[in-house]
Amino acid sequence: AMYRAKTARDRVARYRVEDDPHSRARLQTLEALRDALARGELVCHFQPKVTVADGATRSVEALVRWQHPTRGLLAPDTFLPLAEQTGLMRPLTLAVLDQTLRRLRAWRAQGRDLTVAVNLSVTNLLDTDLPGDVDRLLRTHDVPAAALVLEITESVLMADSRRAGSVVAALRALGVGLSIDDYGTGYSSLSYLQDLPVDELKLDRTFVARCTADPRSAAIVRSTVDLAHSLGLRLVAEGVEDTATLERLRAYGCDVAQGFLHSRPLPADELERWLDTHGARPAGPGRATAQVP
Ligand code: C2E
Ligand code: MG
Ligand code: MG
Ligand code: MG
User: Fold this and answer.
1) Does residue 197 contact residue 169 with C-beta atoms inside 8 Å?
2) Which of 72, 141, 219, 276 is most buried, by the most CB atoms less than 10 A from its CB?
C-alpha cells in the first residue's frame, strides 16, 4: 500500500538508490575488489602449455583467481568484467604481471627453462602506458622479454585497431612474444593476421573440443594449423580434454596443447610438483620414450 501511494518518479529514485540489490552488490564488489588488490588476494594459477611433439612443457599460462576471504576461490569471469568497467583492469594486470614475473624469475633460477603467458584485456591494449609498464616490470624482476608471452583476443583488436595496433607494436619492440587468444571466435581474423606481428595462434576450444566428433570442426582445426604454419606461427589448441583429441591434433601437426587432459590451472607450488613429475613426459598412451629438454 505504501508503494502504491508513491509516484512513478519516487519509485524510480527508490529503485536506483536503495532497492537495486544488483547495483548495491556491484558497488560492494567493486570496493571489495579494490581492497583485494591492495591486500594481495588476487592470485595466479598456472596451466601447462604442452609441446605435442615431445610432451615437454616449455610454457605455462597465468590465470588470475580471487582468493576471497569468505566466498572461496573465485573464477575470473566473476570479477574481470567489473574490473574492466570500473578502471581496475590496469592495476589488476600490473599485479598479475608483477606476481607472474616474480615466479618466472624463481623458476628460471631453479633451472626451469619456462616462458609464461599473461592475458591482456581490451582496456590494457588501449593503454599507451602499458609497454612502459611491461618494460619496467621485466627489468625489476630481471626477466628477459622473450620469456614473457602476452595473450590478446580478437575483440581487443576490433575495439580501436589503430590505437591497439600501436600498443602492440610497442610491446613487440620490447621483444615479448605475442599470441592471439580464442582464435576463430572474432570477426576480422584474416585482415589483422596480415599486419599483426604475432608469434602464436591459440585456436578456441569450441573448435578443438568438437574435432573428433564433427568433420567440419576437424576441417577448421586442420586448416588453421596449416594457416598458422604458412604464416610462420605456432598453433596452440586450447581446451584439450582427452587423448583422442590430442592424437587428432598430433596428426594435424598442431604444435602445443593446453587443457584439462594435461592439467587444470594449478597454484605455483603444485605446478612445480606437476612439472617435476609430468613436465617432460608425453601425456596419453603410445609413446614409450620422452625427450628430456
Ligand atoms: P583464456 O585465456 O582463454 O584461458 C583459458 C580458460 O579455459 C581458463 O579459464 C582455463 O581454466 C580454461 N580451460 C583450460 N583448459 C580447459 C579444458 O580442457 N576445458 C575447459 N572447459 N576449460 C579449460 P579461466 O581461468 O576461468 O579464465 C577464463 C578467462 O578469463 C581466460 O580465458 C581469460 O580470457 C580471462 N583471464 C584469466 N586470467 C586473466 C588475467 O590475468 N587477465 C586478463 N585480462 N584476463 C584473464
Ligand atoms: Mg589466454
Ligand atoms: Mg583462450
Ligand atoms: Mg577462452
Assistant:
1) yes
2) 141
Q: Are strands 42-51 and 57-68 parallel, antiparallel or unpaired?
A: antiparallel
- For ligand 1, residues with CB inside 6 Å are 47, 63-64, 75-77, 80, 96, 119-121, 151, 181-182, 205, 238-241, 259-260, 265
Query: pLDDT value at position 187?
Result: 66
Q: What is the mean pLDDT of residues 194-200?
A: 88
Say yes or no: ipTM exceeds 0.95.
yes
Which atom of ligand 1 lies at the shortest distance from residue 265's CA? 11
Substitution candidate for ligand 1 out of 57, 60, 61, 63 with most atoms within 8 A of CB? 63
Nearest protein Cα to ligand 1, atom 17 = 239
From the list 288, 286, 271, the residue with the least C-alpha distance to 50 is: 271
CB neighbours (10 Å) of residue 192?
19
Give residue 246 CA to ligand 4 midpoint distance, Å: 18
Pocket test for ligand 1, best of 45, 89, 119 (most atoms within 8 A of CB): 119
Q: How far apart are CA 252 and CA 244, in angstroms?
A: 13
Query: What's the pTM?
Result: 0.89
